[in-house]
């Protein structure tokens, strides 16, 4: 539709290796399994309850059967957060999450008190069907906003869903959480004797779900500090991507570790998985055809470096240059100057800006900016801005 | 080209009245003159020196013949500011600006030491040709960046240009400063016994000049505090607009008052002129078909209100909703929530968001958001995001 060529890569197009980005350091030794396989102790499944018009699965459930699960949850910081975020924030034992119930089709955002009651009811029904403390059940939702939940459909489907969970439910679950994603984002990997699986969604805003990003990670490894491990991996992955600079009302990441393997999670494995998934989300950004990575070095400090990198990554001028294969270093200079408005960094020229790969044929373009203000550095991944973005976002009416 | 209909309004399409926006309070009593007419004491003119390939005028000169001119200059805060900005910042008597020399075609940005020398040489040549202290001559440039100036063309044209200045040079000057503007932005008004004229350009980025905004204002009124008057008018006009959230390396506004009328500038006249010109620039934003105004009230303070208003105005989701005539209040809620990330403003719904005019037929859409955090308020004007923006910015290669 964009007329600018197709995305070449894409995880979940299961014929490709999961690790397919130049920017992800894959584990030294690993085996890629069928993404339906879940680590020992986990089951998942999905049904069509009726939120999606196209008959696709729209309600997913994931459970860890081990009572002593170690977990961590990260939630959007959007100040107008949706009902499921409020439920997870206020009523979830985030260190002991046994299960997650997820719908796609309705974000249950901007739905007021009724929305909050609905998110709680969905969670409670899942908890009861699984025989779990309801405060150990996470709830996540993605889809249209400002539309009341069709709760009868959701609630009447949960018992059947809970009965049908299977140890090979990874693919089913990954597909049930998709909205406008063009491909599922998922993997199951074996490395260092442990298994890790993950399912993510992002990208689409058609209805308009604000590119809600959801990600669920399961492992049979021992993760002794799940909060710390998840925070670090997310800081280097989902926190470093931008499609259009917008922050969703519903973003959620859940990590669950069952420890059934008796082995520690290998260093870097979680980080590599989340970074690859984050890059899939950028690559599947609305209408995206290419992904850029801008690295800013020599800033006064890390915070300043990040400010500059984000200004560049979110600049529609840089994004259209990435689309148009225009090695336009001037647009990077301008964005950097705007980020640091009020100070004086001199004129920035091609001696300190790497923009050649904007013009390259590769799907992933590496860009750089060297400032001369200190030791701060930061990088951000971003998509190009295309006609399809406008088609998707302008030619839809609530 | 956009397929979404033409801009209906537009100053400088001289058949329309200058004041044509619902958001501008025109003076109670005024007469609109031919925009070629300049206030007493001013002369202007333009030539084609060879920077523009299409043969259009690309070098303009404006002078106040009264030695006791009162003036003020505002310059971009972009940290990577262009050579002419540096010259005006460091070497201009900003309170006594007699003349302005302007080229369109080359922004003289990211051109290093040579660029700085060129901007000084251009200024010096104009000052000498006019017999003025060179530190009373402003220099402004707009066009491609990172390309050395063809100074021989500029310098060899200046003497002839200076000789040909006329009291009716307003139209000529306004056209010489245009780059990708679709229409000139200018006016000459008589009100309360004084005359004020102004010429502005903005909008285009094709080459890529980063939507550089230039504006020159002349009046024969007494302006006793020109800095204060200009700052106030710019704060309410050029500082309140956004096309794509980018800040130019070259933005310049110059106000000159000759006092030859012996009368004070009527209250609000400068503000009305600059606001109308600012709205013309938004309406002529790259590919723009509609203009929105978002007013945020009830923020904790003015700064917070502005932060929220800008996040909404720069949201590509809101911009595409303006294009698509989608009364999508959820996108306003999401942007507001993102602006205030980390705090909790509850879910925002249609009870506090006015988004109906997104769907209207009018060219100017008024939007609102009422927060419940204090007395802070702010508003921002913005354009929609269209296919033509992408065509303009992606399908051009340096």
Structure description:
Chain A has helices at residues 83-91, 112-130, 151-163, 170-176, 226-235, 269-283, 302-314, 316-324, 329-339, 387-394; strands spanning 31-33, 42-47, 59-64, 70-75, 99-106, 137-144, 185-191, 194-201, 214-219, 241-242, 252-257, 291-299, 353-354, 364-370, 376-383. Chain A has ten helices and 15 strands. Chain A is an alpha/beta fold and 398 residues long. In chain A, helix 1 (83-91) crosses helix 2, helix 2 packs parallel to helix 3 (151-163) and helix 5 (226-235) runs parallel beside helix 6 (269-283). The first copy, chain A, has two domains: 31-283, L-amino peptidase D-ALA esterase/amidase, CATH 3.60.70.12; 291-394, Ubiquitin-like (UB roll) (Roll), CATH 3.10.20.340. In chain A, the strands form three sheets. A six-stranded mixed beta sheet of chain A has the order 1-7-8-9-11-4, sandwiched between helices. A five-stranded mixed beta sheet of chain A has the order 10-15-12-14-13, with helices on both faces. A four-stranded mixed beta sheet of chain A has the order 2-3-5-6, with helices on both faces. The relative contact order of chain A is 0.16. The longest helix of chain A is centred in the N-terminal third of the chain and has 19 residues, at 112-130. At the A-B interface, helix 8, helix 9 and helix 10 of A face helix 8, helix 9 and helix 10 of B.
């Amino acid at each position: 539709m964009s007329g600018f060529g197709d995305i070449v890569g894409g995880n979940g197009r299961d014929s490709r290796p999961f690790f397919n980005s130049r920017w992800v350091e894959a584990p030294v030794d690993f085996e890629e399994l069928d993404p339906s396989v879940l680590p020992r102790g986990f089951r998942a499944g999905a049904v069509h309850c009726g939120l999606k018009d196209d008959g696709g699965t729209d309600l997913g459930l994931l459970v860890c059967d081990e009572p002593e699960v170690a977990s961590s949850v990260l939630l959007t910081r959007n100040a107008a957060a949706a009902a499921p975020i409020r439920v997870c924030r206020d009523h979830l034992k985030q260190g002991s999450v046994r299960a997650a119930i997820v719908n796609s089709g309705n974000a249950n955002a901007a739905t007021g008190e009724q929305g909050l009651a609905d998110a709680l009811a969905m969670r409670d029904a899942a908890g009861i069907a699984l025989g779990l403390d309801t405060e150990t059940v996470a709830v996540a939702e993605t889809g249209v906003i400002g539309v009341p939940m069709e709760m009868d459909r959701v609630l009447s489907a949960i018992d059947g869903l809970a009965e049908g969970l299977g140890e090979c439910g990874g693919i089913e679950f990954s597909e049930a959480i998709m909205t406008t994603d063009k491909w599922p984002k998922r993997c199951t990997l074996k490395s260092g004797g442990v298994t890790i699986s993950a399912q993510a969604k992002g990208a689409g805003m058609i209805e308009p779900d604000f590119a809600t990003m959801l990600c669920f990670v399961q492992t049979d490894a021992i993760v002794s500090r799940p909060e710390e491990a998840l925070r670090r991996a997310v800081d280097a992955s989902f926190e470093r991507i931008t499609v259009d600079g917008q922050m969703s009302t519903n973003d959620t990441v859940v990590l669950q570790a069952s420890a059934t393997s008796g082995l520690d999670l290998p260093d870097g494995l979680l980080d590599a998985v989340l970074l690859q998934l984050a890059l899939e989300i950028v690559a599947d950004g609305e209408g995206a055809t290419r992904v850029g990575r801008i690295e800013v070095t020599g800033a006064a400090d890390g915070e300043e470096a990040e400010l500059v990198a984000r200004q560049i990554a979110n600049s529609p001028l840089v994004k259209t240059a990435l689309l148009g294969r225009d090695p336009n270093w001037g647009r990077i200079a301008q964005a950097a100057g705007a980020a640091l408005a009020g100070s004086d960094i001199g004129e920035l020229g091609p001696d300190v800006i790497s923009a050649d790969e904007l013009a390259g044929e590769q799907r992933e373009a590496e860009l750089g900016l060297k400032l001369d203000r200190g030791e701060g550095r930061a990088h951000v991944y971003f998509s190009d801005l295309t006609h399809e973005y406008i088609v998707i976002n302008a030619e839809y009416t609530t």
